[in-house]
Specification:
With about 800 residues, this protein is α+β, with helices and mostly antiparallel strands. It has 26 helices and 25 strands. Strands 1, 2, 3, 4, 5, 6, 7, 8, 9, 10, 11, 12 and 13 form a 13-stranded mixed beta sheet that branches. Strands 16, 17, 18, 19, 20, 21, 22 and 23 form an eight-stranded mixed beta sheet that branches. The longest helix is centred in the middle third of the chain and has 38 residues.
Length: about 800
């Protein structure tokens, strides 16, 4: 029976090679897109699930309720006091940002290092290729490398026992682990013992402070323990040992959920909005659905051509179940042939997809989960392709068929039209989304953020080279560095500040006061330490007052506030000259700076306090002469070799930092654009097949019309009219859906473009033009055929 099904299926498929080709191509493209999306979705939804007992592992999360802050970090002493029966294991980690590695005289800045305690490898799963955790903890100055880092530093040599200098300190390689999985929150390539951090007396004092919230603590709970009940207990431990933390509370975040905590601060782990994952899951289903719609539409449209075959089969004894199985087997054959093409396309597209999603999906075909996704996609495609066409074709009555009375029911034609409308509805929603997202990104790129970001780069001077016992001495060191840099013609401006002006994160609460302040008002504000050159170098605009002046020593105690701070703090007028207390120091407000975007446009501009504190300023801003960026970098590197020869020179362009703020949005835009093109392509393949079939069915009518004087335009209008109506209906259906989706997306931005009606009109016009062009290719071909030949042969 199976052999007969296979022979019949291939005979029908080869007999209609053009239709078969369209079905396979459309389905292969749709399945490829769906499988890539499902692979990415699976990667996101299974973050950190590979660790043993991942469901019982939690991270301590700190909440500062007065300011509404949520931190992924807490203090090291808190972790040391967690001796509770409900906790079976615990581990602490502290990222080692900017680890300097020295090997064979070369300095390399590694940004993926971390300090871990003795419980880390007991709590979390790592595959050791060489060495072991016990040898790692045996000596405080040992380290563990990932396989790729070991290859980078030692080549083909055995790295175990080799020495690697981290800063001035020699460390011995105690273990090699496999590279971190793509779906791991812990993307650290160099692991160091916390004991090495505590070996320095100054670092130890700072690390053991209850107010130092730079450590992450993870715990494993006894089975059946309610994490919600443990949070208050740990909060009590913190308050008992450190009364100064009275405004903070502790909660427990599941290891499986921390990847989706987009509002949590102080967490270097990669994060993703869970809503976006669900949206792309739905998109994958829709892309597969519109690919399957092509098969359903073309198969049902051609149903009348197979009516006589079905009638004869039934008369000779074929039952409805047998026919249903035959047609379902044909669908499976198409799906399998499409899957073969899909696997090739997935392999070819995977490198690009990795780049677009910024996700290292390694060796997916070696992963059993991948084959589950592929198998599930194949099953879904077969069922979507096969059920309705098989039911329709197997339901024909043999006597009616052989008498030539076969006619598709109105509901079958309506369903086919409805499926076309669904295809183009999805396509139009994607097109409208692409247009709007691109316009929003254009708005971000071309809206003046309130400062200059072109021809500016920054680098950070090590505190050991800069900080001195007094502010005046620190200022003198910074001045000397500025003078050295300004001797180079390629550098037109130099300034010192506390951090990058792009995406500022340095905020606090409760440290500001002024005359007339309500004692119960505890505002959150951002702070920026900046010197007397900062305004000119960065291009800030003053609304009132003046900037800091190096000739006025009192300016080391004075402040400049932005417009939002003045308004939100409700400071008395006139503002200039008002007393202002901040971070333990008292001075006067000497200026008001125009609001600028010191965070991304996802967030509203917050109150900002600018102060000139040399001991807080370690980031150097370099303004380059036009066309002299290369020379300016060389000059900065030359000065760097004099002030910090034991550290690698690491710099960042403000333009790049700005673009990184919107990296996720840009990636979303690119993916939506890609899938819009795929959706339109698949929809047009189906429309092409339907147009060709319609033209073939109406060849005799077209011939008669041409003999009676119809022009090519008349024939084109005749054949295109119904399809254009369907696309216009799709525009009507898609517009409110696209409006709702894009309105929700724009809500993520405090500053965004208006939701203009022309965006949806443009999406509809684009879809209509593509559809008309697709149908016209077949309609014109039919209209230009010789009518005499058609009437003679049909």
């Amino acid at each position: 029976m199976l052999k007969n099904y296979l022979r019949t299926a291939f005979r029908n498929l080869t007999r209609n090679a053009a239709t078969t080709g369209l079905n396979i191509l459309g389905l292969a493209v749709g399945m490829t897109a769906a499988i890539l999306i499902f692979l990415w979705v699976d990667n996101e939804l299974t973050f950190d699930s590979y660790h043993r007992d991942a469901g019982r592992i939690y991270r301590l999360t700190t909440h500062y309720t007065k300011a509404g802050w949520v931190w992924a970090t807490n203090s090291l002493p808190l972790a040391q006091h967690l001796d509770l029966p409900a906790i079976t294991a615990k581990a602490t980690i502290k990222p080692a940002y900017g680890t300097t590695v020295r090997l064979a005289g070369e300095l390399v800045l590694e940004k993926t290092g971390a300090y871990v305690d003795s419980g880390w490898f007991s709590l979390f799963h790592y595959d050791f290729i060489a060495g072991s955790p016990s040898s790692f903890y045996h000596h405080p100055f040992s380290l563990i490398l990932t396989q790729s880092k070991a290859k980078k530093y030692f080549g083909d040599k055995n790295p175990l026992g080799q020495t690697l200098h981290i800063g001035p300190t020699p460390y011995q390689v105690a273990g090699i682990i496999r590279d971190n999985p793509a779906n791991s929150s812990f993307q650290y390539d160099i692991l160091l013992p916390i004991d090495a951090l505590l070996a320095d007396s100054n670092d130890r004092k700072e690390a053991l402070s209850w107010g130092n919230y730079n450590f992450q603590t993870f715990i494993k709970l006894q089975p059946g323990t309610d994490p919600a009940t443990l949070g208050p207990v740990i909060t009590g431990i913190m308050h008992t040992n450190a009364p100064i933390t009275g405004g903070n509370t502790i909660s427990l975040s599941s290891l499986k959920d921390i990847h989706f905590e987009t509002e949590t601060s102080n967490d270097p782990a990669p994060h993703m909005n869970r809503k976006n994952v669900y949206i792309f899951s739905l998109l994958g289903v829709f892309l597969l659905l519109i690919a399957c719609i092509n098969y359903v539409n073309l198969t049902t449209a051609r149903a009348s051509l197979r009516a006589r075959e079905i009638g004869i089969r039934k008369l000779v004894g074929a039952g409805k179940t047998s026919l249903f199985s035959q047609f379902l087997f044909e669908s499976l054959t198409i799906s399998i042939l499409s899957l073969v093409c899909t696997l090739l396309l997935v392999r070819l597209a995977l490198p690009l997809f990795r780049q677009l999603t910024d996700t290292n999906l390694r060796a997916p075909f070696a992963n059993p989960e991948t084959w589950k996704i592929i198998g599930g996609t194949l099953l879904m495609a077969t069922l979507l392709n096969g059920i309705y066409p098989a039911l329709l074709l197997s339901s024909f009555r043999p006597l009616h068929v052989l008498k030539g009375a076969i006619n598709l029911k109105f509901k079958d034609i309506s369903l086919r039209k409805g499926l076309v409308v669904l295809q183009f509805t999805v396509s139009i929603v994607l097109i409208a989304s692409t247009v709007l997202i691109q316009r929003q990104l254009h708005y971000i790129q071309h809206t003046n953020p309130g400062y200059n970001r072109s021809q500016l780069f920054t680098f950070r001077v090590p505190w050991s080279q800069l900080r001195k016992p007094s502010e005046e001495q620190t200022k003198a060191v910074a001045t000397r560095i500025k003078q050295q840099l300004l001797t180079y013609p390629a550098i037109t401006g130099v300034s010192f500040a506390g951090e990058s002006i792009v995406g500022m994160e340095n905020s606090n609460e409760g440290s500001a006061s002024w005359d007339g302040k309500d004692p119960n008002f505890v505002p959150e504000n951002y702070q920026l330490a900046a010197d007397e050159n900062f305004q000119n170098v960065v291009g800030l605009e003053l609304r009132q007052g003046r900037w800091f002046d190096i000739k006025q020593p009192t300016d080391l105690h004075n402040y400049i506030l932005n417009e939002t701070a003045i308004n939100r703090f409700n400071i008395r007028r006139p503002v200039l000259g008002q007393r202002f207390f901040f971070q333990g120091d008292t001075g006067r407000i000497i200026g008001i700076v125009k609001d600028f975007h010191h965070t991304s446009m996802h967030q509203a501009i917050g109150p900002l306090v600018i102060l000139d504190r040399p001991s807080w300023q370690a980031v150097v801003y370099i303004k380059t002469a036009p066309g002299k960026t290369t020379q300016a970098l060389a000059a900065a590197r030359s000065v760097w070799s004099q002030i910090a020869p034991d550290n690698p020179f690491d710099y960042t362009f403000l333009d790049e930092a700005f673009d990184n703020l919107y990296k996720a949005d840009t990636r979303t835009s690119t993916l939506i654009l890609l899938f819009s093109v795929i959706a339109i392509l698949i929809s047009c393949l189906g429309l092409l097949g339907l147009a060709a079939f319609t033209a073939r069915q109406r060849v005799k009518e077209i011939g008669i019309r041409k003999v009676l004087g119809a022009t090519v335009t008349n024939i084109l209008t005749l054949l295109s009219r119904d399809f254009i109506k369907l696309v216009l209906l799709s525009v009507v259906v898609a517009t409110p859906i696209a409006w709702w989706a894009m309105h929700s997306w724009l809500d993520n931005f405090a500053y965004h473009i208006p939701l203009s009606p022309w965006i949806f009109a443009a999406a509809g016009i684009i879809a209509l033009v593509i559809a008309v062009f697709t149908v016209a290719t077949q309609s014109i071909r039919a209209a230009r055929a010789n009518p005499v030949k058609n009437l003679r042969t049909l």
